[in-house]
Amino acid sequence: QAKIEGRNNYQFYNAELDRKLTENVRLENDLRKALERDELQIHYQPIVELTEKKMVGLEALLRWEHPTLGFISPYDFIPIAEESGLIVPIGEWVIKSVCQQIIAWEKETSNKYSVSVNLSIRQFYQSNLVQVISESIKETGIDPSQLTLEITESMTMDVNKATIILFDFKSLGVNISMDDFGTGYSSLSHLQVFPIDFLKIDQSFIREINTKSEKRTGIIAATILAMAQNLGLKVIAEGVETKEQLQFLEEHGCNYAQGYYFSKPQPVEMLKEYMK
Ligand code: C2E
Ligand code: MG
Ligand code: MG
Ligand code: MG
Question: Which residues does UniProt call coiled coil (predicted)?
Answer without folding.
Answer: 10-37
